[in-house]
Amino acid sequence: MKKWLCAAATAGFCALSMTGVFADNLVLPQGEVLPLTDKVTVWNGQSSFLGTYVSEFLESDNLVKTLEKEFTKAGIFNEKHKQNAEELAKLTASLLKNSRMYQVRSEVNNTFYTGFVVSMPVSDKDKAALERLTDESVLSEKGVQDSKKPVQDILGEALGRALNKENQAVSVSDVSKVREGKSQKGIDYKEVHAHVLINQSGLLLPVYAGGFSLENKEGTTYNLILTDETAGNYFEPILQEALRRASR
């Protein structure tokens, strides 16, 4: 669960330019199709406020160096494996740049719901590399026990610094159990959700984070939806039903 959550959380960084409106289907990078009902439309995520901000981060000439620096500051690797920070930074940058970003929108009874969806395909080769780096980091079971800070706090602080947000703290709570299933078309998937609280200079922002992954011949597609708690509660059952009906 820990490794899957880390991969899903990593997906929250990423974006790739897209255009147009995609009706009521969420089409993922590896060709999986999630039917979201005719009440939901899928839009270009690049042009959103968050999408523009993340794109600027990804287009930075110093992206790899920035990630390496923040992984080191976060204490993800001990002295023995500190050289792995550069390898993780290069791999992370590559995965982020090959990812896609979407918006999902719905209006029901004069209430507007919107969410930010990020999709990151990870090959079996890259997944093995991520798992090896995780095993050699403080994210391993022994490292978590010995660390003074919970893993989610370490990653949250690294994310806040990497995105150049000062006076920001990120905490994760109420993480659900990972639910596994197989779609009607035979696609294996996993789904989980959590509540995230962002403290920006004293302003508390409650966020819903829902993660879901789908297996394919090339590897796994990890996805993350970020939105407010009300919209999260609205989209959650729609996404769960879409996963049950997922096809290629």
User: Based on CA inertia axes, which overall geometry fits?
Assistant: globular
Poorly predicted parts: 1-9, 11-20, 141-146
Distance between the termini: 25 Å
The total count of helices amounts to 8
- Give the percentage of residues in beta strands: 25-35%
Order of helices and strands: HEEEHHHEEHHHEEEEEH
Percent helix, as a range, is: 25-40%
What's the pLDDT, averaged over the residues?
77
For the largest beta-sheet, the strand count, sense and barrel status come to:
8 strands, antiparallel
Query: What's the count of strands?
Result: 10
Structural class: alpha+beta
Radius of gyration, CA atoms, in whole angstroms: 17 Å
Characteristic terms for this protein:
about 250 residues; alpha+beta; eight-stranded antiparallel beta sheet; two-stranded antiparallel sheet; 8 helices; about 35% helix; globular; disordered N terminus
Chart the SSEs and their pairings.
Layout: H1 2-11, E1 25-27, E2 33-35, E3 40-44, H2 49-58, H3 63-73, H4 84-97, E4 100-108, E5 111-123, H5 124-135, H6 141-146, H7 151-162, E6 168-173, E7 179-182, E8 188-200, E9 203-216, E10 219-227, H8 229-244
Antiparallel strand pairs: 1-2, 3-4, 4-5, 5-10, 6-8, 7-8, 8-9, 9-10
Helix pairs in contact: 3-4, 3-7
Protein described:
The chain is an alpha+beta fold. It has 8 helices and 10 strands. Helix 3 crosses helix 4 (84-97) and helix 3 packs antiparallel against helix 7. The radius of gyration is 17 Å and the shape is globular. The protein starts with a helix and ends with a helix.
